[in-house]
Amino acid sequence: MKLSFKDIVLMALMLLSASLGAALRPTIYLADERAPIDLKAMVPTAFGNWQEQLNMSAQIIDPQQKETLERIYSQTLTRTFVNNQGYRIMLSIAYGKNQSKSLELHSPEVCYPAQGFAVADKQKTTLNLLGQPIAATNLQTNLGQRHEPLTYWNVIGTNVTTSLLDKRLVDLRYSLTGRIPDGILVRVSSIDTATDNAYAIQRQFAAEMIQAIAPENRDRFIGEIKTK
User: What angle do CA 186, 188, 191 make, to 5 degrees?
Assistant: First the structure.
């Protein structure tokens, strides 16, 4: 089997991490050095043209996986929003105090197929949030006649990560300082057969949501904010 350069680098990082082992084992939770996080309080229920729609379930988790997710994540938030044109967006945010291992194992590429969805397409994209480029992923998923395009991104500590290799590098950097990073995964989706339209509205929704979050909390959702 021929390994790609990315696979070789990832294997080298894993071997390095294993060999250093106890010497680099982090003991300090980065979350304990930061302000406490409260997803329900931090994310507004109304902003721009969007309003939370009560009594609507934005279920994205198979009930059989609930116990696993509750063990991994410290907090989760799911809400359904509707705008003044009646378009609905499903928001899901998962936060974990300890993301030293496997936030990526519970990304939508894994969770959606576990619920029976097929992933028809995956593309890297860039969101403009607070005037900053944020690396994200678009997934086109289907379950029978249900077409659910989605956009998601994740942040480990203060870093937006886009791949397993990227996450391992961030983990390693934190390990060298003795710290265990926290992490957050933000996902927005909509039931829409017009995939490009869905992605465009999701980008707008994400930008308006981050803008509505209090300035002191925004970095928890999009990583370190660079000032010009």
Answer: 155
